[in-house]
Amino acid sequence: MKKYILASLLSVLFLTVSCSKFEDSDISENFNATEDDKLNHFIWKGLNLYYLWQEDVPNLADDRFTNLADLYTFFRSNSAPEETFNSLLNEYGTIDRFSWIVDDYIALENSFQGINLSTGIDFGLVYNNDGSSNVFGYVRYVIPSSSAAIAGITRGMYFNAVNGTQLTDTNYRSLLFSEDTSLSFGLADYNSGNPTSNNTTVSLSKTEIQEDPIAISSIIEDGTKKIGYLLYNQFASSYDQALNGVFSNFKAAAIDDLIIDLRYNSGGSTNSASYLGSMVTGQFPNEIYSKEVWNGKITDYYGADRFINMFPTRIIKTDGNNNVLVDEAINSLNLQRVYFIVTGSSASASELVINSLNAHIDVKLVGTKTVGKQVGSVTLYDSDNLQRSGDNLNPAHTYAMQPLVLEIKNKNDENYPNGIIPGDNFTGINLSERIGNLGVLGERSDMLLDRTLVYISTGSKAAVKKDNFTRPTILFNSKMATPAGETMYSKIK
Prior knowledge:
Layout: H1 7-23, H2 35-50, H3 68-75, H4 81-87, E1 100-102, H5 105-112, E2 115-118, E3 121-127, E4 135-142, H6 147-150, E5 158-162, E6 165-166, H7 172-176, E7 182-189, E8 196-205, E9 207-210, E10 214-222, E11 225-232, H8 240-253, E12 257-261, E13 268-269, H9 270-280, E14 288-293, H10 296-302, E15 308-310, E16 314-318, E17 324-329, E18 337-342, H11 349-358, E19 362-367, E20 375-377, E21 380-381, E22 400-402, E23 404-409, E24 428-430, H12 447-458, E25 474-477, E26 488-489
Parallel strand pairs: 11-12, 12-18, 13-26, 18-19, 19-24
Antiparallel strand pairs: 1-22, 2-9, 3-4, 3-25, 4-5, 5-6, 5-7, 7-8, 10-11, 14-15, 14-23, 16-17, 20-23, 21-22
Helix pairs in contact: 2-3, 8-9, 9-11
């Protein structure tokens, strides 16, 4: 996917549209602008220029404030930058579910590359089956060499207490996601979805870990077929070349089919998503991969054609001075069919790949409804042109915004804001993970992988044999608590 907007042109647009009316404004000498005032101004001017729904928010109108003193005074009633930011969103939590602001852009940038403060457990939180407010965690996977891995925590374990306190739907955030770096996990037995303590306590430490998003890549031989399998947990751009290497192996093995497991992939870089699309295919170098819809201000200035993205043929990376750091051909499989495994944790860039490829080849899914995040964001910093490398980056704080700035569709102008549903709005099989019996990722004991392999070999979408399994009510997962969260992001370059 091409780089969306040239930095120099954006600087001109920013100065023309957002700042000119304040340049000649006089603020009386006795008006003392505070750092909080300046931070509020940064929030307003960034959203005024880029926010997807800028035209729908009256307080973001170009003529809303007469001068800087007027703007400063208006936002002084807010107690924190987060309050200013949320007050300028379009029906936050309803229409806009995914814009956010952070007070540490270093942590945000790290999180985009899979670097987070973590015990190493990727987990889901679900309600007990007894209808109470109690919740428990189940381990989805463990990051190698982490505190959890060293302590022997493995996929399929359960915990219902942290620091000696039973987890509930009102205390799990404070217990699991506080600034404390030492946590004590009370392990439990599943007990049909009402876990009971097994009197085992494990003490774990949160450390800064970089997770390799390419968790598993293998070739599964099933009868006469060779099937490539990839468990991919984040679209992290620093691993694009490694991902290309995986597809080189698939290509050399001449695989017959491909399974891409995105069940725990909550999104990431749109560039990485487009590279993956071309790795699967390769036969569409001059065709549309996706289309973006930005706000009227940006679209009028550049024209809608600038936001049409073609299938890339090379991985190209440059530094801040546009010096080429990486330029390598994409290893393409030229497949006409691909299988994806998805769950309620599959979001944004994961959905982008599925939707974009579906307009070109046969896409089949196994799993459950995805999040339905068809919108993308950019990171805005408090500098002259709102970029990290911009002039006069404010040293007084490390706030950055991640507002939604674009809606993304496939070449046929289709997307799925209510989620992609296997067997409903997409060809496939609707099947949930069995939390009481997760199996081993990458092996046939994992029900979702096994059912996908059966689907490939037989073409049958028949349901598996019914049992007493009840789909749990999922409350939260650990990825949602990282700075990057369920995001799909692009760069302003």
